[in-house]
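Troubleshooting log. The previous run stalled partway through. Resubmitting the same two chains, unchanged.
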Amino acid sequence: MKFETGKRGLLINILSLIVFTIVWQILVILARNDIFNIPFIRLRDIPTPVETWYALVGSMFTRIYGPSFTYGIINHVYASLQRVIQGGIIAFIIGVPVGIGVGYSKFLGNLFNPIIEIVRNMPPMAWIPLSIFIFVSGGSIFIVFIGVVFPIILNTIQGVKSTDSRLIDAAKTLGASESMIVKKVVIPSAFPSIITGLRIGIGVGWMAIVAAEMVIRSPVGLGYFIWNMGDLGRYSEMVAGMVVIGVIGYIMNISILLLQRRFINWVD
Amino acid sequence: MKNLMKILFVVIIAIFVAGCLENKKTPEVSMPINLVKMSGQEMIQRLGTGEIAGFIMWEPYPAIAVTKEDGKYLVLSGKIWKDHPCCVVAYDDDWYKKTNNSDEILKRMALSQLKSVEYINNAKQSDSPDHDQLINYTMQFGQMTDPVAANLSLADVEFVYNTNVAGTTTFIQRIQDFGIFDPNKWNLSGYKNASDYANSLVTNNYVDWAVNNKDENVSKIALKEPVNIRYAYLVNDIHELPFYIGWQKGYYRDLGINIVIAEGAPFQNGAFEMQQGFKANTVDVGSLGIPPVIIHRINSNDFSNDDTRVGVIAGMNNEGSVIVVANNITSLKDLQGKTVGFPGPGTIQHVLFLMEADKEGLKVSY
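Second attempt completed without errors. Output:
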């Protein structure tokens, strides 16, 4: 993802968001006044950005109406983020060693490659029905794990394979053991690639968690929130939830990018 | 750009910290009972495996769970609110306006409803010659295999054909108290209060006509030209047995109405029937719980063309929902902090559960 940097780039970024919001507002208002309509789409039923904003503010924190206790968006974000982080950590702990093993050893590569190639082509959403039945709890964490682990494994393999063979040879010449070579040469060389895998994986995991929360039963989570609001016909809150999903996904992506640039400064 | 990233990074950390603090706050309010949406089949299965502590659902699911000994009845909805209205027969206002003889059709829909209810109420008696036939219909409609469960499921459902304006007003009031209406949409609706809204929603004329004509010769009052009615109902809901009886025994057909099952029916819950059926104009007449009708005629309606406007012409049943719990649960208080299945937000079971929790001073999250 390349952005034009500097003030001009930032200005264009902000302008594009403003224009998008204005176009959204105008389209809905035109449809509501029967001036313009896109066939087969009930544009008039889409909440305007202004309605969405008010819904977002109104549902940010827990609301209590008599016995009814409605969790705030903040609780739902927290629950979803927690699941993504837990799934991401498990995927990292399993994915990196598997990726290094498969990338470094030809034997392990031949052994595991067919399994990885088949399983990675099953999208995380395809695992949802099975996880409903096999997990008593934590099914959605598993869905995140599936989403995150394969980008990590594949990027780790790629990172390991692209290690400069001269560096490995040099280490061997200096008498380094296999485990030393992996620890001191292969892993540092593959690390940027591993982090790229993590970034892609977290993006997939975030999308998967929202789908999983719609199906796997849990009282909190952004997927559950937007589904519930849709059931109640509270469409402004539903769209506010969707916007939050998008914004959090974006923030997570650039946060990892930021960390990558900050801590892996030996890579371009 | 770097600064923007830093700001966004701080924002995500702030949300996470705020979420932690907000979550910590929750128990201080008292541990809520967590309602989680699921299908009736799933409720029975998950209660059996201990994944949920209970559920609130329409019959026959409670009866099936109890006969399988996976749980027990904790509260019958008749104890929450005696004779509360439940499912009703509703028509789509767009269909009503564009159909020439819609009033005549609705009168006959109400008459068929009346005949079915009378049949069921007679056949419910175990010494009735029709009892076995009724149990067979119940098992077919509820997709049951156990006649004991079928009998049990009929016991707490009160089949009716009358409309209930007072009960509807109470439901509207409670739905307002529980913060379920979209405040902007409520303002757009122009209703002054719950009673004003209930009176606009419910019409007694059709049932009155049915009562006056119930002993007339059917061939005399049948529609001259038979019409097709796209009908929607809820999946495996014993409350709507009068519809199934009227359809199977040919009451509709004899009155000149051909029932065509609407696209998407049977629906998983009333919210779906309102949003995907009535609003999308794929349903002419249907049966569903009164709360989804009340909620979605406001929340899902586009008031510039009133596309989700429906009218209630007859009752289907009173009572008939049950809070079923695991065998170790003895009161609603025991459900605090636990997960309880329900058919979805805005369903009658949701509103009834909130009402019961309110009586007990408990909180319910969904």
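Takeaways: Chain A touches chain B through 50 residues (CB under 8 Å). Chain A has ten helices and two strands.
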